[in-house]
Design a protein that fits this description.
Number of helices: 5
Low-confidence stretches: 3-8
Largest sheet: 8 strands, mixed
Mean pLDDT: 87
Shape: globular
Structural class: alpha/beta
Strand order of the largest sheet: 1-2-8-7-3-6-5-4
Strand content: 25-35%
Amino acid sequence: MCSDRITDEKSVKMLTLFSEADTQKLAQQLAKLSLSGSVWLSGDLGAGKTTLTRYWLQALGHAGAVKSPTYTLVEPYSIEQKEGSAKPVYHADLYRLQDPEELSFIGFDEYLDEENALIIIEWASRADSYLPPPTMFIDMTHEVHNVDTNSEGNNSKENNKECRKVALQLSKAGQAQGVDLSVLNV
């Protein structure tokens, strides 16, 4: 069952998203973290990984459409920064990946080696033996929260309200970047 409990630590954070607006707010806060390296998004189909990524790219400054990389594996973005430089961001979806070695055929190593690049990877577990450790893990789960809709307390009626539980955890690489997850609050 979903709850409003939040664990505040610098390297681990648990959040509950009750709406798409909450997902957008989280994405805006993630954009302010100035992450580089890879972020591994995990969760079942429909958990909200692509929606979070779309809002994250928009919060970073991408103004165009955000395509799902389900069939292309990777969608590249070059996001102009305030000081005039461009931040390379890659959105990868490895759900359809048959063999992790396929990543070498498409030049995925170049994305990982690119300075200051952010690589957001859905379904990274399909290539975890190939990929270097990420900067951060984000695990999203879809849950149902029972909400009491009777304000008078008589004949309590419950409605099911969907929510997303989000667990964020920095790796040693993320901790070395000085990222602080305690600033995230939805």
